[in-house]
Amino acid sequence: MDERVIGRSGQWASVVGLGTWQLGADWGDVDDKEALSVLETAAESGVTFFDTADVYGDGRSEETIASFLSSRPDLHVLVATKMGRRVEQLPENYVLDNFRAWNDRSRRNLGVDRVDLVQLHCPPTAVYSSDAVFDALDTLVEEERIAAYGVSVETCAEALTAIARPNVASVQIILNPFRMKPLTEVLPAAREAGVGIIARVPLASGLLSGRYTKDTVFAPDDHRTYNRHGEAFDQGETFSGVDYGTGVEAAAEFAALAPEGFTPAQLALRWIIEQDGVTTVIPGARNPAQARANAAAAKLPPQTAAAIRELYDRRIKDQVEHRW
Fold first, then answer.
1. From the first residue on, what is the mean pLDDT of each consecutive set of 10 residues in the chain (324 residues)?
2. How does DSSP classify residue 147?
3. What contacts 221, CB < 8 A, 6 or more positions away?
């Protein structure tokens, strides 16, 4: 699989990575054996970038990755984790002592002395404008606790603020055919600054797979049940912030655009990979078949984007662009 450099870090990631939120929590139950099988299948399919966070399953996702990689010393996989959601979301909690404590925990969970890439995990907006915060992250690099750092953001405005920071290696942002606003300013700014873009929520929480109907019922412990209106965290993380009924209808139209040889999910991933400035896209997978199909999208031919843009402008844009 092709790889691209993650901005200023000098590190490389496969164009299709693996998001591992599903292997920790909030997507229904995934047992340990299945989780390890997902990691194995992704790696065997050419994936060299795993994205996780210290709060996914309260560390379970990080520990599962560590268990897998310790059994496969032949593999070179870059692991990015995130920190900052283990405390009340107040800017004053984003300080060096907390960063060290969170990093210590992630390094233990991952079984490493130095984490490849650490990202602030969608912190309060004021954090992105704090010199002290980025000085503290620079200290973690100097102390060789982390090799590089980036941010995970909710809004395009937050992304642009972060991109202006001289040592930010990457910005993780929601980007998919139902969330196109980053194409306008964020990706051009990142290209100019040499900052990597990690595209998350690429399937709009599964909507773009075309598998769901208005009658689909998700498990009670699935964020697609309990966070549809932002009850637990930012609403934009669930179905990309699109109203579920509208999303299902638009997803059916999107599925009809998939050419022969593509699933709708693969069309969405292929579209993201083709956006100039994207480093890697990180779909999740609940089973090996999903992991294999996601990775295969990297080898499919590029597709015309005009019909996808028309669908977004007609059905989705007015719901999401003013918020994120």
1. 95 97 73 92 98 95 96 96 97 98 98 98 98 98 98 98 98 98 98 98 96 94 94 96 97 96 96 97 95 96 90 97 96
2. S
3. 25, 26, 28, 29
